[in-house]
Amino acid sequence: MNGARALLFACLCCACFGGEVDRDSLLPPPPPELESMEPAVRDQFVERRFLLESVLSDPESPDADVAWALGQMGRVYQAYRHLDQAVWCYQHAHHLDPTVFDWPYLLAHLQVVLGDAEAARDLFLRAHALRPEEPGPLVGLGQLALEDGDLATAETYYRQALDLRPMNALARYGLARVETESGHYADAVERLRRLLEEQPRAYQAQYALADALKRAGREDSARIQLEATPTSPLERVGLRSRDRWLEAIQELPVSATALEKRGRQALLAGQVAEAIRWFRKAEQIAPERREVRFNLATALARAGRTDEAIEYLHQVIANFPNFDSAYRLLGTTRLGSGDMENAEIWLRKAIELEPRSEANLRALADLQVAQGDLPSAIGSFELALEVDPRSEAAHVGLIVCHLRAARFAEAGEVIEESLRALPSSRRLQWLRLRIQAIRKTSGSLAGASVQSFPEAPQSVFELESAAMLRAALGDYRAAARLQESAAAQIDRVQHREVLRQRLEDYRSGRVATTVWDAAERVRVSRRNGRGAGSPSRSR
Question: Where do the domains of the chain lie, and which CATH numbers do they carry?
Answer without folding.
Answer: 3-211 (1.25.40.10), 426-525 (no CATH)
